[in-house]
Design brief:
With 219 residues, this protein is an alpha/beta fold. The protein folds into two domains: 142 residues, Rossmann fold (3-Layer(aba) Sandwich); 63 residues. It is built from nine helices and eight strands. α1 crosses α3, α1 crosses α4 and α5 packs parallel to α9. The longest helix has 14 residues. The protein is globular and about 60 Å long.
Length: 219
Amino acid sequence: MKNNKYQGVLFDLDGTLLDTANDLGAALNYVLSQFDLPTVEKQVFRPVASDGAQGLLALGFADKITEYDQPALRRMFLDYYEENLAAETCLYPEVPELLQALNERDIPWGIVTNKPEYLTTLLLPNFTEFTHSQVMVGGDSLAERKPHPLPLLHAAEHIGVAPEQCLYVGDALRDIQAGNAANMSTAIAQWGYIKEQDNLATWQAKYISASPEKLLSII
């Protein structure tokens, strides 16, 4: 491990390791259809996928959302998603090779996501590549969630790596804020759900990585 720049790597999940946009978008469109509202095209919901149920519902219902019971909408969304959570979800290209390289180099790695823990626990076993993940922290696993640093600090402690020796990789501003606040190095997964208006240079990440393969060269 002495030749590795980082002794541990933590990843966001949606938009970083897994492309979950189609299944999340299907859940949004199911909810919209229940109220006879127009569905949302893939190119519109895809950049918002990292924002989860709340962000997607806000996108789909727009200024009408205050007319509805929002906790009920979220429950309907999550129930549908739970039943269909791996229908079209897949690993991003080069992610299997990245994770395998970490395994071969004995670099411990894990997942810190804002996705509810129960959904993450159901989703991960669909992909054998996650067998070697040493920790998983969901959005409701602890008292705080990203952009708070607590989930990252908890994960680093679990894998036995000091925060300053960890790299955290994510595709949303809250990921970089959490990593920086935890005193970790941070990398933006540029292949993820980046919005057109996002100015990545202002996020204060140490790295902007165009692909998982490029990320490996950083590690």
